[in-house]
Specification:
With 230 residues, the chain is α/β, with parallel strands linked by helices. It is built from nine helices and nine strands. The longest helix is centred in the C-terminal third of the chain and has 22 residues.
Length: 230
């Protein structure tokens, strides 16, 4: 299972510190999903060798302009293993689920964002993973937490109905915000998810990384078609 993190300068902890904590908590890897204007400088191979945790280069495109979002996704697609779009607004949510080049629509229900059946169907058709972010469940209280739980339940119903792909994350910005997979399972069960859903969502980051790395390799032509060395 993998966790998707924001590291310094987009968070408080370095990539190396995040990876060490991930190893302690039993994760197999982390996806570094810094926003595009807050790129981290790190050596994935060196950190992986030191910690035993797979470090996946990612990016979370953040803009409210659909045209700019399209350009940013195109620019990052060839440079990042996983490309996510920072969701929350109706316009950006709709843009992201309509783009096969987008891997993940991050926290589509954030900032009181709306997500409906049309978007869920588009996400399923285009293979865009929808993120169940548990960040606000873990770090807010009172009415804000109640609204977050309600939003996640609505998103879960849409995902289940349209069989849309999904990922799960605590969306940590510090190693102190990371939670072990068993803790996220417990949180998920408390708010209406089952253990398999949480574990599947954490594992989906790994599947995405494996698939995209294969596609970025020199031998890849099309799905199922590879150039073999002579």
């Amino acid at each position: 299972m993998y966790e998707a993190v924001h590291a310094r300068p987009d968070g408080e902890s370095t990539v190396a510190r995040m990876a060490r904590t991930a190893a302690e908590y039993g994760y197999d890897g982390i996806v570094v999903r810094n926003h595009g204007d807050q790129r981290a400088t790190y050596d994935p191979a060196e950190i992986s060798d030191d910690t035993g945790v797979d470090v996946v280069s990612g990016v979370e495109v953040r803009t409210d302009d659909r045209s700019r979002a399209s350009g940013l996704v195109g620019n990052h697609r060839s440079r990042s293993t996983i490309v996510a779009v920072h969701g929350g607004t109706v316009g950006i949510n709709r843009f992201a689920v309509e783009q096969p080049a987008v891997d993940v629509l991050a926290h589509p229900m954030a900032d009181d964002g709306d997500f409906n059946h049309v978007m869920a169907k588009a996400a399923a058709e285009n293979g865009v993973r929808l993120e169940f972010s548990l960040h606000r469940v873990l770090h807010t209280t009172g009415g804000r937490r109640v609204r977050t739980v309600q939003s996640l339940r609505k998103l879960r119903e849409l995902v289940e109905h349209y069989d849309a792909p999904f990922v799960v994350s605590a969306d940590p910005t510090s190693h102190l915000e990371m939670r072990a997979p068993r803790d996220l399972v417990a949180v998920g069960e408390t708010i209406g998810f089952d253990a398999d859903q949480i574990e599947t969502g954490l594992t989906e980051w790994q599947r995405l990384a494996r698939r995209n790395r294969e596609r970025q390799s020199d031998s890849f032509v099309d799905p199922g078609v590879r150039i073999e060395d002579e």
